[in-house]
Design brief:
Helix content: 25-40%
Strand content: 15-25%
Number of helices: 6
Structural class: alpha+beta
Distance between the termini: 107 Å
Largest sheet: 4 strands, antiparallel
Order of helices and strands: HHHHHHEEEEEEEEEE
Number of strands: 10
Strand order of the largest sheet: 5-2-7-8
Length: about 270
């Protein structure tokens, strides 16, 4: 009987006596995703673009030809999907409502017990501790620290994307130039924009984005797409101490002053 694609990968890995933990550590692919790949559970994997990337990394690490492994995967897809290019829809498991309700009740009880314990212990400490004497002001007042001057970001923008996991990106630079790339763990790419950039990340949680050397907060969740508009979206992702320099607004034109001739004056 011919092996399925996942069984083929597992057999090749076990023949070489390589554990899934070793594969996960070397490829930066979560172990649960590797298990789903070997079990042919495509509904538990991200988009096929990322799955192909998983297969390349997996095959390269255990000593297989990455291209041949991807071709074998494509043949497997044709067997399970008669129509080419049709991806299997993501299947959602029904929620275990009863278990969720029980867990919520238990969690509420635990929180209530903790809160009551904290209140009780605080009351005991307040009764046992004598009132504190007011502190006398120090003769030498300390000089307050000067407020930190924020670092301002402004155009042009240097955008660096470093992949922690497999990440696909599509960038539109200054509304004309486009760039598409597939990054693997450890890869990075730097792009320049004179005024603005629209950045679409296929695995937003698997990429670190820096703008003018400022490392942004995560722009999205793992294995979920997200779009970042630069500079429009920067304020919500900039780290502490960084601000986006406000664009200079055009000066408001004052209305022309009108003069009223005094009563009785001759009209021009």
């Amino acid at each position: 009987m011919e092996l399925t694609f996942g069984e083929y990968l597992r057999k090749e890995r076990e023949t070489r006596e390589i554990s899934l933990d070793d594969v996960a550590k070397a490829t930066k692919i979560q172990k649960r995703l590797l298990i789903a790949l070997e079990d042919n559970r495509l509904d538990q994997l991200p988009a096929l673009t990322f799955v192909r990337g998983f297969i390349r990394l997996y095959a390269q690490f255990i000593g297989l030809d990455p291209k041949q492994a991807v071709l074998r995967f494509e043949e497997y897809l044709k067997q399970i999907h008669p129509e080419p290019g049709v991806e299997k829809p993501e299947l959602k498991k029904p929620l275990a409502t009863k278990n969720i309700v029980i867990s919520a009740v238990v969690l509420l009880l635990v929180v209530a017990v903790v809160v009551l314990s904290v209140i009780g212990s605080r009351g005991q400490r307040e009764r046992a501790t004598p009132p504190a004497q007011p502190a006398r002001p120090s003769p030498l007042a300390e000089t307050p620290a000067a407020p930190r001057v924020p670092t301002y970001l402004s155009a042009p923008y240097e955008v660096k994307i470093k992949a922690v996991e497999i990440c696909w990106l599509l960038a539109t630079i200054d509304e004309k130039a486009g760039r598409e790339a597939m990054l693997y763990p450890g890869d990075s790419v730097i792009m320049q924009a004179e005024k603005r950039m629209s950045l679409l990340l296929g695995n937003a949680g698997g990429a670190q984005v820096s703008v003018n050397s400022a490392l942004l907060k995560s722009v999205g969740a793992h294995w979920k797409p997200a779009r970042l508009l630069i500079p429009e979206d920067l304020p919500q992702y900039l780290p502490q101490g960084y601000q986006l320099r406000a664009e200079e607004k055009p000066a408001e034109q004052k209305p022309a002053e009108t003069t009223t001739a005094p009563a009785g004056a001759p009209k021009p």
